[in-house]
Amino acid sequence: MDADEREAHEESLAELFWAVARRLRHQSRQTLEPWEINPGHARALAVLGRHGPMRLSALADHLHIAPRSTTEVVDGLEERGLVARHPDPADRRATLVTLTDEGTRIGAAIRAARTAEADRFFGHLSPADHAHLTRILRTLRD
């Protein structure tokens, strides 16, 4: 394959990738509609559900967003009663963010809905294709 063919192939691959990503984002937003929650808030609920209470700075690291943006996400979730802020027992000057019972319930419901969504989206792949795609995406992510 010469340079022009490689460039055309890579462009085509990138276009396909972004088309799939757009489709997944659209489906994800539809999946979140019943809870009137945005994807950023859903990601924060998922991180807190997986890792438990944490400081805002740790949540920002997990979400790969700026601490200021994390404060806005937590403010929005707190207004809805999905998270609460508590003093960190290890350092009373610091604050921990924790899921409320409602946040835990909604986080679990979202996780179940997203699992069902992923099963529908990727369900037509053969087990071998699913395994290959998983391996490829992990390689690209890392």
Automatic annotation (TrEMBL):
One of its GO terms (molecular function) is DNA binding. Residues 10-142 form the HTH marR-type domain. The keyword rRNA processing does not apply. InterPro entries: HTH_MarR-typ, MarR/SlyA-like, WH-like_DNA-bd_sf, WH_DNA-bd_sf. Keywords: DNA-binding. PANTHER family: MARR-FAMILY TRANSCRIPTIONAL REGULATOR (PTHR33164:SF57), TRANSCRIPTIONAL REGULATOR, MARR FAMILY (PTHR33164). This is DNA-binding MarR family transcriptional regulator. It comes from Micromonospora purpureochromogenes.
